[in-house]
Amino acid sequence: MSSFNPVELILKKRDGKSLAADEIAAFIDGFMVGNVPDYQMSALLMACYFQGMNPAETAAFTQSYIDSGERMHFADSLLVADKHSTGGVGDKISLMLAPIAAALGLSVPMISGRGLGHTGGTLDKLEAIPGFKTQYDIAGIQKLVEQHGYALVGQSDTLVPADKRIYALRDVTATVECPGLITASIMSKKIAEGARHLVIDLKIGSGAFMPNLRRATELAESLKRTGESFGQKVRVVFTNMNSPLGHAVGNALETAEAIEYLKGNTLPDTQAITERLVARMLQSSGLFPQEADAIAAIREVVASGKALQKLEEIIIAQEGNPKVIEDYSLMGTTQYQQPVLAPASGYIHTIDSRAIGYALVRIKAGRMKMSDRLDYGAGTILTAKIGDPVQAGDTLGTVYANDAAEAPKVAAMIASAYGITELEKAPEELILGEL
Ligand code: URA
Asked: Where in the sequence numbering do the catalytic residues fall?
């Protein structure tokens, strides 16, 4: 389209008609060069939110996002694979998954984000490692992946810049929860980074932004269809986010838990999810077509210490202090420890992970706005899980904080996130399905 009128396109979408690929491209290009102001882009986003987006529109948004920046290109000989998680509480899976996958021969350009609100971000967990550098340009990320089999980095400014700017608008115009826009946002990054095999960990439950399997399936179908239309192999694993993953929530605590995993001290839930996701990456790439072989290989690189060595290798390559592997206190310490006590006797039926995430913001283990400073050492270790029997006053876990006044408040808030009743309750399934 040589010239176009943004109002006409907003009107068209508002009235329920579909936009053509060239119209979407013109709108997004116009926005990026300053010809379409924020208020018109916001109006289009709201029209997309209410009218929905068909697969062709979603693909066109994805393409325009990709075209707004640079792409990574890897040699055909590399098996480039990645994982995307829709985010949760205590989700440190990337910190285990990437070194395991790299130790097994996959190439993983792991580009992560920061935590916001109740959810944590892998980038913050990595930055708990003193000196660890997360900002690289495209060439730098490619070099890390080529030399070390993976990179653990933040998004480069030149990779899908349209998503960055449009996401910022969606965030403040209540237009995030639109499957087509979410798809374009996630898939453009994963396609532009050159991943040929993608596994999506789509989290469902109290700590996730997808409340149920029906809504998650709609998003999963859109993600898979869009990735496949760009030649990517996409597998979606639906996982349970009704309780925090593992025991640790908080940046340094989670990084330490991930290192413990790579030392062989795994926890049942993080192990089940890590193994399933890495297995699907290995199967998709053809390295280990059979799941049983993939799982055996994953366990071997953990047991032999090869995955831990891979982690050490990337910490050194990205200028972090590798001594953290032996001395977790280098990532941050806390002065105060406050037990989290069971408010009642019975069985744990529910855990409001979202409430736990928000409570932790008070001791700077998370942030409410991007400019908030984090206290890397702050967080909680919660060992009690759904289905566990407890007595009132039992210790469910511990809060670690540097704020003496906030620590007991946060411990009380976390305690009240546990729904305990007298009825017995079976532990919940961790993996809820696949697509
Ligand atoms: N994660 C993203 O990267 N984009 C979205 O739109 C939603 C979640």
From this structure: 84, 163, 170, 185, 189
Contact between 69 and 159 (Cβ < 8 Å): yes
- Based on the domain organization, do 316 and 362 belong to the same domain? no
Note whether 294 and 353 are same-domain residues. Answer: no
Domain count, the chain: 3
Rounded distance, CA 59 to CA 41, Å?
Answer: 18
318 lines ligand 1 (CB under 6 A): no
Closest-CA residue to 237 (of 253, 257, 247, 223): 223
* Claim: this prediction has a pTM higher than 0.90: yes
**Last residue of a domain, which of 292, 325, 358?**
325
Instruction: Residue 138: give the domain boundaries.
Output: 81-325
Q: Is there a single domain that holds both residue 314 and residue 167?
A: yes
428, part of any domain:
no
| 276/393 Cα distance (integer angstroms) | 36
**Residue 23 within a domain:** yes
Residue 174 in tokens: 């209540």
The response to whether residue 185 sits with its C-beta less than 6 Å from ligand 1 reads yes
Q: What token pair was written down for 287?
A: 């390295």
Per-residue pLDDT of the chain (435 residues), as tens digits, is: 657 899 999 999 999 999 999 999 999 999 999 999 999 999 999 999 999 999 999 999 999 999 999 999 999 999 999 999 998 899 999 999 999 999 999 999 999 988 878 888 999 999 999 999 999 999 999 999 999 999 999 989 999 999 999 998 998 899 988 999 999 999 999 999 999 999 999 999 887 878 788 889 999 999 999 999 999 999 999 999 999 999 999 999 999 999 999 999 999 999 999 999 999 999 999 999 999 999 999 999 999 999 999 999 999 999 999 999 999 999 999 999 999 999 999 999 999 999 999 999 999 999 988 888 999 999 999 999 999 999 999 999 999 999 999 999 999 999 999 999 999 999 999 999 999
Q: Record the tokens describing residue 143, joined without a space.
A: 């070099």
Q: Is the CB of 222 under 6 A from ligand 1?
A: no
Shared-domain flag, residues 126 and 255: yes
Evaluate: CB of 186 within 6 angstroms of ligand 1: yes
111 and 94 assigned to the same domain: yes
- Ligand 1 atom closest to the Cα of residue 167 is 6
φ, ψ for residue 343, nearest 5 deg = -80, -10
Which CATH number fits the domain that encloses residue 348?
3.90.1170.30
Residue nearest to atom 2 of ligand 1 (CA): 186
